[in-house]
Write a structure and sequence with these properties.
The protein is an alpha/beta fold and 281 residues long. The protein has a single domain (3-280), classed as Rossmann fold (3-Layer(aba) Sandwich). Helix content is 46%, strand content 14%. The strands form two sheets. A seven-stranded parallel β-sheet has the order 4-3-2-5-7-8-9, sandwiched between helices. Helix 4 (94-106) packs parallel to helix 5 and helix 10 crosses helix 11 (270-280). The radius of gyration is 18 Å and the shape is globular. Belongs to the short-chain dehydrogenases/reductases (SDR) family. This is SDR family NAD(P)-dependent oxidoreductase. It holds the Pfam family adh_short. Keywords: Oxidoreductase. Residues 1-35 are annotated as: Disordered.
Length: 281
Amino acid sequence: MTTTGSGSTYDPPADPVRRATAAPAPGHGPQPRTDRRVALVTGASSGIGAATARRLAAGGWHLLLSGRDRRRLEETASGTSAVVLPADLAAPDGPRLLAQAALRETGRIDLLVAGAGIGWAGPFLSMPHTDIDRVLALDLNATLHLVREVLPSMVTAGHGRVVFIGSVAGVVGVREEAVYSAAKAGLAAFAEALRQELLGTGVGVTLVVPGPVDTGFFARRGRPYHRNRPRPTSPDRVAATVWEAVTEAREEAYIPGWLTVPNKVRALTPRLYRRLLNRFG
């Protein structure tokens, strides 16, 4: 029963504030702004975040990559013009400092892919209170605060998109992942509510809901994935879905597509849904 980072092992900087803000050298003034579309990707150290960053780079986006491990971020950025912005989003000022650094670097953010998160596996009754706080702090609270910091510039510009990386756990609820499920369900509800508030602003909201993904996430949380179904998909497939959703301005995307079925069953036959969940959930 351990908490885990979704994108990296934590490599804390000696001076978190200075490192997260990525301030320009004295006398050099603001960094040059770019005419290319700019994407800020969190959780970009590895896994889904890294795969999404590579797909966006191949599509011509200018990337700002954030995570907690500078070395792994630099590996993701290798061969691209991406800017690395290490930050700990769970720190009290983490989201604000990252948003400020990103906007100072490029002057704009056209796309935010919120992929940072951690997991915890085990019975809820044995979950330490500190781990409850850590999962909710990063998977839900930090994401909301980061969106709050980034969104005003998008609304002012009259265009932009926020992509949330959700989870099937937030759709059906997974036993012994109660807090993680709650955080991802909260993220899905936030995405829907925010989408309604942003109507007419030119800013869109996308929720990407993958099933299990073949990354180090399960090993790092302390429990490997052991179910026969759904079978894990690749992070590149999730990245391709993010790309398609952004390109087509889609509001939701499920990987694989049949993961939409549980919600339909729940709406039509709640009793059957509950029986199936009790057996397979």
